[in-house]
Specification:
The structure holds two protein chains of two kinds. Chain A is α/β, with parallel strands linked by helices. Chain A has helices at residues 2-42, 66-82, 94-102, 114-119, 127-130, 139-142, 168-174, 182-194, 212-225, 228-236, 244-257, 266-272, 275-281, 298-305, 340-350, 352-360, 378-388, 397-400, 405-417, 422-436, and strands spanning 56-61, 85-90, 109-112, 146-147, 150-151, 154-160, 163-166, 291-293, 316-319, 326-335, 393-395. Chain B is mainly alpha-helical. A two-stranded antiparallel sheet of chain B has the order 1-2. Classes of the chains: A alpha/beta, B mainly alpha.
């Protein structure tokens, strides 16, 4: 009988020991945090902002694979200088960020989309508080990250989308010239069709995000037909998504995207070909299509699949002809905690040195002015110039408008390419737009 | 069981059943075999052709025979001034659009191809592929272990781990020796972490549930049925609902990102079902056995240890298997409570590719690494499965 009573007691003891084992670690953490700001006042000029070796920063970002490798290379000088320990976590599941924030355990720093700046505007630490160097960024990069007059997000990585990839060697062999106006592009497309070539590879399958490639294309057409102010109007909600201008852009896109004469596989090919496969179709042998409109990352996809191809002669890009301004995406650093180590990280990334190191790592473009002249990859040099010389920069609609707008836009494109009613599709996106911007 | 199988005679009455079974096996197996084959192919091959072509003849051999062999010879050396096995010459013809113009041109006033028609673009591309192999420019193998090596070591570059280590420009956290197997970003380390999560998270709930099930079955105390009903009812609590509150609680206790935290979580959520299943099984054991044991003076502890546990082995085994596999394959809980601190297999698989899907050849290998242990568990313990699924379903 005695033994019977011992069982639950033993079990309770096990749990108590398990819990007790974790307790000291938790008690030690706040003590460190309290001690750190005191030191900060002492060392004013310290690039590490008073961060001590061994201080930890928890990071959450969507990058993985080779991207993570490049990020590590960028942050390596900072880690070496300050001895800060990075605790990264990588996921593309936004629910994890939301869960962590709601549970009261947000990461110190998250690299996420501009929409999250709006979502967490009440709890994010402003960049000015953290000592970010705002002079190193163009206004059009700071503006999307400024919510209610507070600068909340540091744009760390940018990519331009308003470009078309092609093979200069194939163009030369077939007698095609790079167009400089939209009419020339139109004429070139017709010329290719007359020659029996398929002009576009427009495949956009991407799992549950299918359609984003199409939304990039349509936004570029909007930049050609309407200009950057119009796109900004869509973002602010002044112009509803079912406006005649948007419809015109959809029709221009749909003429190509759903016709097997203009794109590989017609509507079915557009909907079912993966976006990475779509890039490769232009550079396979023999090429299945002549051009693919895709962001800057396409260069890396081509290089990985065809190591023998040379940038500049075998593959290259030209800006979408006639586009007024550029469409681009940026990844934003947002800080949930104000610690010396976070300040040091923000100071490093917003410094000219940080921008230069970002450029040297070839991790797409850096909006930091320090990046200029430091790119080593020829494609990035050309993209960097395009970005530096642009007259207008418009962020990606789907990334910028929060809520369900992005997926509504993608669904509309898929339904339209599939032969669905365009007006109904645009109406549903306009509804999502109105709800998101209420 | 074996005896029964061997004495069963084949009859046509069973033919439709056999056909359906074989068909279902094929439907299940083909994608898995495809994945397995793909995991051994180099990335360029994966992107350009299907896995079934791995057994196909070399690309372009037929085209070469048709269009070129009559003049250039089977080994490409028949025309000394146009030696197709010469790497320098072949290097000029990277693509069909570079070779086609020269096939269309004239040589000594005669059409290059003589009376043979000029091949089309695809055929030309295949001929180039064949010439590259013949001349030694393309010496890549069709089968490679690189995907597995890259996955195990957590290689994150643009090439392969072996190529980077051979050229000496591997990334900072790689040593290019046996230590890389335990690289925090690799599947090797993740495998160990998964074991560290799964084994205690399997043992704890089943151990505790066994005590509870015995008590519910053979110890008489007030409110027993109500307590049991409450525990069974706990099964309806959706795990996802509790992530945020438990994460908050763990933050206060300092359990986020620790193995103890995830053990506790899995123990908590595994218990209701484990108790339910084991109680039904132990409750169905013959009452007389226990009564005679008590009469002989056995305490509850003895009865539990000497009777209940040995008799419940089938139920315990099946419960172990199911709980283990569920934890092994769990991503959500591991992501929220362990995350990047101690990456487990499911977490690391997703991190093999970039956010734009580059590097997915490693996924195929990573998938097989994570599949290895469950497959082993299935093969070794399969006799418990059928018994396990019936456990507790019929109460004696």
């Amino acid at each position: 009988m005695n033994k019977k009573f011992w069982l639950p007691i033993a079990l309770l003891a096990i749990f108590a020991m398990v819990l007790a084992a974790c307790k000291p670690a938790q008690e030690a953490a706040p003590a460190e945090e309290e001690a750190a700001p005191a030191e900060e006042a002492v060392v004013e000029e310290d690039p590490c902002m008073g961060a001590k070796p061994g201080d930890e920063i928890t990071l959450l970002y969507q990058w993985s694979g080779t991207e993570e490798e490049k990020l590590n290379a960028i942050l390596a000088p900072f880690v070496e200088q300050c001895g800060v320990v990075l605790k990264p976590e990588s996921t593309r599941d936004q629910a994890l960020l939301d869960t962590k924030v709601q549970a009261g355990t947000p990461p110190d720093v998250a690299f996420w989309n501009v929409a999250q700046l709006e979502q967490y505007k009440d709890i994010l630490i402003p960049m000015d508080t953290l000592g970010a160097n705002g002079d190193n960024y163009a206004d059009f990069f700071k503006d999307p990250g400024t919510i209610d007059g507070k600068w909340l997000g540091l744009p760390v990585k940018a990519d331009i989308k308003t470009i078309i990839w092609y093979s200069p060697a194939v163009f030369e062999a077939k007698g095609y010239t790079v167009p400089t106006t939209w009419d020339e592009l139109d004429a070139l497309v017709e010329q290719m069709v007359a020659n029996g070539d398929i002009p576009w590879s427009m495949g956009m399958e991407s799992g549950d995000a299918t359609g984003w490639t199409g939304s990039d294309f349509i936004q570029d057409i909007l930049l050609v037909q309407q200009g950057p102010e119009y796109v900004m109007g869509l973002i602010s909600g002044e112009i509803p998504y079912n406006d005649a201008g948007v419809k015109q852009a959809y029709e221009t896109y749909g003429k190509w995207a759903s016709n097997p004469v203009y794109t590989v596989g017609g509507a079915e090919g557009t909907l079912s070909t993966g976006f990475n496969d779509a890039i490769l179709k232009v550079f396979s042998d023999p090429p299945e299509a002549m051009m693919v409109k895709q962001s800057g990352f396409a260069g890396g996809t081509i290089a990985a699949q065809y190591p023998d191809l040379v940038y500049g002669t075998d593959y290259d890009f030209f800006p979408v002809p006639g586009a007024k301004g550029l469409q681009g995406g940026a990844d934003w650093l947002m800080a949930f905690n104000d610690t010396p180590a976070v300040r040091a990280l923000v100071a490093y990334l917003s410094s000219l040195e940080g921008g230069a190191n970002w450029a040297k790592a070839s991790f797409d473009l850096s909006p930091n002015k320090g990046a200029a002249g430091n790119y080593v990859d020829p494609a990035l040099i050309k993209k960097g110039e395009a970005l530096a010389n642009t007259t207008g920069f418009t962020p990606d609609l789907g990334d910028t408008i929060p809520g369900g707008f992005g997926s509504a836009e993608w669904a509309a494109i898929v339904s339209y390419v599939n032969g669905g009613d365009l007006d109904a599709a645009l109406d549903s996106v306009a509804q999502a737009q109105a709800e998101a911007l209420k | 069981m074996n005896k029964h199988q061997t004495t069963q005679k084949f009859s046509f009455k069973n033919l439709p059943v056999h056909i359906i079974l074989i068909g279902m096996c094929i439907i299940w197996l083909v994608p898995t075999i495809g994945l397995l084959v793909t995991s051994f192919r180099p990335v360029q091959d994966i992107n350009s052709s299907g896995w079934w072509t791995i057994f196909a003849k070399p690309k372009g051999a037929a085209e070469y025979q048709t269009y070129c062999a009559s003049c250039h010879g089977d080994d490409g050396t028949a025309l000394p001034e146009a030696d197709l096995s010469d790497p320098n010459l072949v290097a000029q013809y990277k693509r069909s659009f570079t070779l086609l113009p020269s096939l269309n041109s004239e040589i000594n006033g005669q059409p290059h191809m003589g009376s043979i028609s000029v091949p089309d673009e695809t055929q030309t591309a295949n001929i180039i592929a064949y010439m590259k192999r013949m001349s030694g420019i393309d010496s890549s193998s069709k089968i490679t272990l690189d995907n597995y090596i890259d996955a195990f070591t957590g290689y994150r570059g643009n090439n392969t781990y072996r190529a980077d280590c051979a050229s000496g420009n591997q990334s900072l956290d790689l040593y290019c020796d046996i230590r890389d197997l335990m690289n925090p970003r690799g599947m090797g380390r993740a495998f160990v972490n998964s074991l560290l999560v799964a084994i205690p998270s399997t043992i704890f709930p089943i151990f505790i549930a066994a005590f509870a099930a015995y008590a519910f079955s053979w110890m008489d105390f007030k409110g027993r049925q109500w307590l049991f009903a409450l525990l069974v009812g706990l099964q309806v609590v959706p795990l996802q609902m509790t992530l945020i509150p438990i994460s908050r609680l763990y933050a206060q206790l300092g359990l986020n990102g620790t193995f103890q935290g995830i053990w506790l979580f899995h123990t908590g959520f595994g218990l209701p079902y484990a108790i339910y299943l084991l109680r039904n099984f132990m409750g169905s054991l013959p009452k007389e056995v226990f009564e005679s044991a008590y009469i002989d003076g056995a305490s509850h502890w003895t009865a539990f240890r000497k009777l209940a546990m040995p008799l419940s082995v089938p139920a315990l085994a099946s419960l172990t298997i199911f709980q283990f596999l569920w934890i092994w394959n769990d991503l959500l809980v591991a992501l929220v409570f362990l995350g990047g601190e101690h990456p487990v297999l499911t977490y690391q698989i997703g991190n093999m590719v970039t956010s734009l899907g580059a590097g997915w050849q490693m996924l195929t290998a990573a998938a097989f690494i994570s599949m290895a242990l469950p497959m082993l568990v299935f093969l070794l313990l399969q006799k418990y499965f059928v018994r396990g699924m019936l456990a507790g379903s019929v109460k004696g």
